[in-house]
Amino acid sequence: MKPITAKLVLALNPKIPRATAEVTAEKLEKACDQFGINTPLRKAHFLGQLTAESGLVPKEEVLYYSAKRMTEVWPLRFPTVESARPYAMNPQRLANKVYSGRMGNGDEASGDGYRYRGMGMIQLTGKSNYKTYGQMTGFNLLQNPDLLLQIGVSALVAAAYWKARNLNEAADRNDIYSVTRGVNGGHHGIETRKWAFNVAYQSLK
Fold it and tell me: pTM for the whole thing?
């Protein structure tokens, strides 16, 4: 089986600087080894999902929403444009609102929603997930959530999440729909995931 290379990383996201692609490939390969993502199919599905989620770049969730857009994304929380207006274009306030009381987060005033917003290559979200995957990888993500913006930490957390969700099983069946549901709960961005999987698989097999 061929390793993940900088060439493959750049094929999946040409915007990554060459030197960063070298580091990204090394860290992803190490994470795959550590968490049993160890066949061409498994690796290709893993890379395909991360490409769709973040472009293989550790990043934080973009939460700059207009009031109108919020009523479309969170219709139960924002039934009218007027109710959404106080949170428009305010990522911190919005995250604290929509993620409050969920995924181990405290109430809106706790600040947990923004502190544990989607972050990393796999967009890990919620205090309970930060705790779980921090423990699995040996990083204190509860105290230092921004560690997820580091390539090595982000790669390990993504691989730990993959293992914990038993996504190798779906990858072994080459079932991209089940893999995608395991990552983001639906089939959002499925065409990008299919494209990235095919690019990765051709390189790795």
Answer: 0.93
